[in-house]
Amino acid sequence: MCLIAIAIRQHPEKPLIVAANRDEFYRRPTEPSNWWKESPILAGRDIEKGGTWMGISKSGRFCALTNYRDPGEQSAGRKSRGHIVRAFLESHLDAPAFLEELDREKNRYPGFNLVAGTQDELYAYGSRSGEKAYLLPAGIHAVSNAFMNTPWPKTARVKKKMAGALNSREELFHMLGDRSAAADQALPHTGVPIEWERLLSPVFIESETYGTRSSTILEINEGRSAVWTERIFKPGKPAKEHTFSFQIN
Fold first, then answer.
1. From the CB of residue 26, how many other CB atoms can be counted at a distance below 10 Å?
2. pLDDT tens, 77-116?
3. CA 86 to each of CA 42, 45, 208: distance values in angstroms, whole numbers, following the listed order
4. CA distance 146 to 70
5. Of the CATH numbers 1.10.40.60, 1.10.10.10, 3.30.2350.10, 3.60.60.10, which one belongs to the domain with range 3-247?
6. pLDDT of residue 91
7. CB atoms within 10 A of CB 76
8. Taking a C-beta distance cutoff of 8 angstroms, is the pair 38, 208 a contact?
9. What pTM does this model have?
10. β-strands 139-143, 3-8: how paired?
């Protein structure tokens, strides 16, 4: 995932709404969202490394991850970040205990941001922030490739738009499809060339080799029923849509 927007207790009937885009190189092989045969997890799958970027378990454990952008960081010899999401979804530890253990292991992975928990308590953690995991309060939050609620143009845009889109799944997808690039003076300075800062600045990214591969919306209702909807893009154009409705145990 390269963009995760979260609405916590902002809708009268849906305590948790998540809208997220996964950005990746088009050549990287991926399986679309589905229930995994070997585990009670609904998620997509990174075929190259075997992990995932966002998922939910039948018991209501939710987790999503973004990479922390640091072009100088070396990934060689480190574990795949996608295995963290799977590990949490399969774990019996609550989010604070899991994230406390993860904090001790964080340097085994390239930099990342993680959201983990349930519809009742959702925690944020940034492996390069120097801070411990913390409970996200009620409100609208967003994270891209910096830390949670860092006011990058794209995160500021989705936080503003999400507040008015919570009653419509289609409006949430429209929000995730925003291709507006930020002005140069508003771009973050993350160490990549200015051309890449421009390319990566929209909510929905398009290029010849890299871009938004999928958009996913998760809605959890007061009665613990959930709807997971994923739209897959090839490249830039909608290819497939998958919807899963289920009851959280």
1. 15
2. 899 999 999 999 999 999 999 999 999 999 999 999 999 9
3. 10, 10, 30
4. 9
5. 3.60.60.10
6. 97
7. 5
8. no
9. 0.96
10. antiparallel
